Amino acid sequence: MILRSSLQNSVEKVLRRSRIVALLGPRQIGKTTLAREIAAKQKGTIFDLEDPTHQARLSLPKQTLESLKGLVVLDEIQLRPDLLPILRVLADRKPLPARFLILGSASPDLIRHASESLAGRVEFIDISGFQLSEVGFQHQSKLWLRGGFPRSYLAKNDVDSMSWRINFIRTFLERDVRTFGLETSPAALRRLWQMLAHYHGGVWNASEFGRSLSESYKTTRRHLDILSGLFMVRALPPWFENVGKRIVKHPKVYIRDAGLLHSLLDIPTMSVLQGHPKCGASWEGFCIEHLLARFGDRNAYFGCRARSFNGSWKKEIWF
Question: CB of 198 within 8 A of CB of 278?
Answer without folding.
Answer: yes
